[in-house]
Amino acid sequence: MDITYYLQTFDHFVIYLAISLVLFLIGTYIFKLLTPYSERAQIKNGNTAVTLKLLGKMAGLVVVLQSAIRSSINLVDLAIWALIAIVIQIVLHLVIEYIFTRNTSLAKEVENGNVAVGLFLGGVSVLVGMIVAATISY
Length: 138
Hints:
Blueprint: H1 3-34, H2 39-44, H3 48-71, H4 75-99, H5 106-111, H6 115-135
Family: Belongs to the UPF0719 family.
Subcellular location: Cell membrane
Pfam families: DUF350
């Protein structure tokens, strides 16, 4: 085991980690902007449905970022693929959520604490993230 290799590449690890965390925060913030209620306040008040939905969104973003990291050839490539994937994931999530909101407001259901709806929407975010992540390859 050559420890010098790890010491020489540690800076790359830190840079990729920092960029990935920033991209994760950007994606999470965009999702936050699209939510008609304060997720922070709802979670503080113990709303499990909101927590499940938010965790699903975050997990979906992580899956997408993980794929972008593995497929990127440099930092610019990582940023481009990650941003494209985040936007696509958000659009697909909104389309899917809209399809299932013909007769009811799923956002209102989650805000009211409907755990089944929160889990469903969080799960959709993870599944969409997995599909988007699978498409990022060379």
